[in-house]
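Re: [ENG-882] Designed sequences occasionally contain unexpected residues at chain ends

Forwarding the minimal case from QA. Structure tokens:
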């Protein structure tokens, strides 16, 4: 859930503030759900904003069915553009067939706001979610998996865990057999068709993790469905690994993280989509352009960062591509039976190992900028993590590559959150991270 404190005035999106306000949207959406449904509450689940261009929003709704008295949950997501842009988008979307949700509209156009909304499970870019959003379709899908055969005739209870419209959907499914036994599965549906390759990587890492105490634990991959767009995984109970930042367990957590990602890099798995420094630079340049639109006063700092990133790109030490996570940070980890577990594989690719090491280091700097880590804790966490990685990766941590990837990712992944997600006190945190990124890209940190 996001907590938006300060919504900027945007002449292209004059109703941006209303879209970011759950209570305001509750009043606006109520007439579209009919008299038999009461909207009890709306919370903003996700919110991304591009100044002067568009905004994307996901709502979590709590409803009451006045006929049955039941309280149910629902999700809607949408895109806000200029009124002309939203009208064109709606015209295009109205030509498509949509699945009618149990409550509310499948497609809703609010012209006065420049907002087009879809009711879950409709998503114009995330195809193939029907097998995991409809119990009968899921029952058919697991019928061909011998280990789950006993559950195909029982009950299925499904809930949304994480939904990023247009990109991925994670759902939790509890399957209960007629005998009363139960199993928990997670489904991950992607907007791309690289799931088959990701499944192979997960399977290899899971097998290896059972025998290697220094490897990251992973959930057991059960099946790849719909041509690789959906993966089924066994549930892996655990708690958020952010707790490993507490002083009493920091050393152990950082050691496990460093050794664990080194094990991923040395796994020998290949066949994944290539990801290069040029891809990271492209993301970085796109974000810096957005930052300048948001605040022209950032121009001098942005120009220095661009020049450093482009000039020092050629100084990155070349290494053979390895299997990389692509977004390795605390939020991708769980603590599971005194080990760290890696649960998110959406971005697995083939690339430079410092992409992952830099991503983890950038997240540590982000937590420091947010005030969640003191100076000493940040420095200690990075030192232990990098030492552990060097002890398990034969190529170590080449300094030019590590500094470049950390600085570029800090801007492209974390500074952009301050604008796109309207983070509280974002300007102060943004400037703190931009200064750190400049030090890293200049080779001074």
């Amino acid at each position: 859930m996001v907590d938006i404190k300060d919504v900027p005035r945007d002449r292209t999106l004059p109703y941006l503030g209303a879209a970011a306000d759950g209570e305001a949207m509750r009043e606006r959406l109520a007439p579209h759900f009919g008299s038999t449904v009461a909207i009890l509450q709306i919370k903003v689940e996700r919110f991304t904003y591009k100044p002067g261009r568009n905004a994307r929003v996901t709502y979590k709704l709590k409803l009451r069915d006045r006929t049955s008295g039941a309280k149910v949950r629902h999700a809607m997501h949408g895109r806000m553009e200029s009124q002309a842009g939203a009208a064109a988008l709606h015209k295009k979307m109205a030509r498509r067939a949509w699945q009618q949700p149990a409550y509310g509209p499948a497609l809703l156009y609010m012209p006065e706001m420049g907002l087009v909304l879809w009711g879950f499970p409709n998503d114009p870019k995330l195809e193939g979610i029907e097998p995991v959003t409809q119990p009968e379709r899921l029952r058919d899908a697991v019928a061909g998996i011998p280990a789950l055969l006993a559950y195909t005739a029982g009950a299925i209870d499904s809930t949304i865990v994480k939904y990023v419209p247009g990109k991925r959907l994670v759902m939790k499914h509890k399957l209960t057999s007629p005998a009363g036994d139960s199993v928990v599965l997670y489904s991950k549906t992607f907007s791309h068709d690289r799931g088959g390759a990701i499944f192979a990587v997960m399977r290899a890492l899971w097998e290896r993790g059972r025998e290697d105490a220094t490897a990251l634990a992973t959930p057991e991959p059960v099946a790849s469905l719909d041509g690789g767009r959906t993966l089924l995984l066994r549930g892996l109970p655990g708690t958020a690994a952010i707790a490993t930042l507490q002083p009493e367990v920091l050393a152990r957590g950082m050691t496990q993280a460093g050794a664990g990602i080194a094990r991923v890099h040395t796994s020998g798995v290949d066949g994944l989509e290539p990801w290069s420094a040029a891809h990271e630079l492209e993301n970085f340049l796109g974000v810096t352009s957005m930052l300048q639109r948001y605040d022209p006063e950032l121009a001098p700092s942005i120009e220095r960062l661009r020049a450093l990133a482009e000039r020092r790109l050629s100084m990155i030490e070349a290494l053979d591509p390895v299997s990389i996570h692509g977004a390795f940070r605390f939020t991708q980890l769980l603590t599971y039976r005194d080990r760290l577990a890696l649960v998110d594989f959406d971005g697995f690719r083939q690339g430079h190992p410092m992409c992952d090491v830099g991503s983890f280091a950038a997240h540590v700097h982000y937590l420091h900028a947010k005030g969640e880590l003191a100076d000493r804790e940040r420095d200690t966490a990075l030192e232990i993590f990098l030492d552990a990685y060097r002890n398990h990766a034969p190529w170590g941590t080449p300094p030019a590559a590590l500094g470049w990837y950390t600085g570029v990712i800090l801007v492209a992944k974390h500074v952009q959150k301050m604008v796109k997600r309207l983070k509280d006190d974002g300007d102060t945190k943004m400037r703190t991270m931009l200064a750190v990124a400049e030090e890293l890209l200049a080779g001074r940190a």
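QA comment: On inspection the terminal residues look reasonable. Residues 16-119 form one domain. Proposing we downgrade this to a documentation issue.
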